[in-house]
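Q: I'm writing up a methods section and want to include an example of the input and output format. Could you take the sequence below and give the corresponding predicted structure tokens, formatted cleanly so I can copy it straight into the document?
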Amino acid sequence: MSQSRPVYLKLRDQIAAAIIEGKYPEGEMLPSVRALAAEQGANPLTVAKAYQQFQNDGLVEVQRGVGMYVVTGAAGRLCSSEREQFLREEWPEIRSRMERLGIDLAELAGTLEAN
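A: Here is the clean output for your methods example:
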């Protein structure tokens, strides 16, 4: 599934995870487009497109000449939307595969507790 996703969406997912995990805290500035492009080995236009998604969603605000800042509440909003997307799009496929393989939730929970 992730192989067919556009690069800017994959990059957007990485940035979203970093915001949720606190690597880019609320109120703090995101790396510049060029800096993130260099770090990720991506085209700056691709990074700009990913950043534009966050701006469109109201998760970052632009201060002209300064940079993009993560808005207050962005991590919670992202976590909520990522959770909903997981349950709606990814979980049904995972659940079907578990059923095909004969894995039940109790067995999975036991495996996770052991690790």
